[in-house]
Specification:
2 domains, 10 helices, about 0% strand
Length: about 190
C-alpha cells in the first residue's frame, strides 16, 4: 500500500524536512502537520520572550505563514526545530525592539507636550530661588577640592571614577572630598533642611 501526504499515518511517519518539501504540493495538509508538531515550541518561546499571550499567538501564526510564503529552511544546515526556534527568537526580539522604540517615542512626545512639573506659584518660585541661593553660598564656602568634586558630580553628572580621572586624583581621595563636602553642606543648610 502506497501512502500519500494526505494520509494521516504517512504524515506521522514523514520527517519535518519531508513535510516542509510537501508544502509545495499539499500546502494545507503539510502546514497542518508541521503546526501540530511544533506550534507548542513556537508559542512557548514567543511567550517567554514577549510575555503577552496575544502577541505570542500572533507571532506563532506569522511564523507558520512564513513557511508557506518565503522560507529559507535548508535541512542540510540543521534540524527543522532549530530553524523554527531561531526564526521565532529573531522575530520575537524584533517585536520587543519595535515595542521599545514605540514606547520611547511616545514618552518623548508626552514630555514635550505635557510640562514635566506644574507651574509654581510666585511664592513657591521665590522660595525655590532662596533655596538655590543658599545652596550656592554653602557651596562657595567649601574648600576648593570639595567644591570641585561636588560640582563635577552634580552639575556635570560625572561618577566618582570619572572625577578621579578628570582631576588625576586617586578614587579614595575623591570619595573623601565628596563625603567631607556633603557633610559641610548639610551643616550649612541645616536651617532650611529642617
Amino acid at each position: 500500500m502506497v501512502r500519500t501526504a494526505s494520509d494521516p499515518v504517512a504524515s506521522r511517519e514523514q520527517s519535518d524536512a519531508e513535510l516542509f518539501a510537501a508544502l509545495a504540493v499539499d500546502q494545507a495538509h503539510a502546514l497542518g502537520c508541521l503546526y501540530d508538531r511544533h506550534a507548542g515550541l513556537v508559542y512557548g518561546l514567543a511567550m517567554r520572550i514577549l510575555g503577552a499571550p496575544a502577541e505570542a499567538e500572533d507571532l506563532t501564526q506569522e511564523i507558520f505563514l512564513t513557511l508557506c510564503t518565503h522560507c529559507d529552511f535548508d535541512p542540510r544546515r540543521g534540524p527543522f526545530t532549530a530553524f523554527l526556534a531561531m526564526l521565532t527568537r529573531s522575530r520575537a526580539i524584533d517585536r520587543v525592539r519595535a515595542r521599545t522604540r514605540k514606547t520611547r517615542f511616545v514618552e518623548r512626545w508626552t514630555h514635550a507636550i505635557v510640562p514635566a512639573e506644574p507651574v509654581a506659584s510666585p511664592s513657591e518660585a521665590l522660595s525655590a530661588a532662596e533655596c538655590t541661593e543658599r545652596v550656592r553660598a554653602a557651596l562657595a564656602e567649601l574648600p576648593e577640592d570639595q567644591r570641585r568634586v561636588l560640582e563635577l558630580s552634580y552639575y556635570r553628572g560625572l561618577t566618582q571614577l570619572e572625577i578621579a580621572d578628570e582631576l588625576d586624583t586617586p578614587i579614595g581621595t575623591v570619595k573623601s572630598w565628596t563625603r567631607r563636602g556633603l557633610l559641610r553642606m548639610r551643616a550649612s543648610l541645616a536651617p532650611i533642611l529642617g
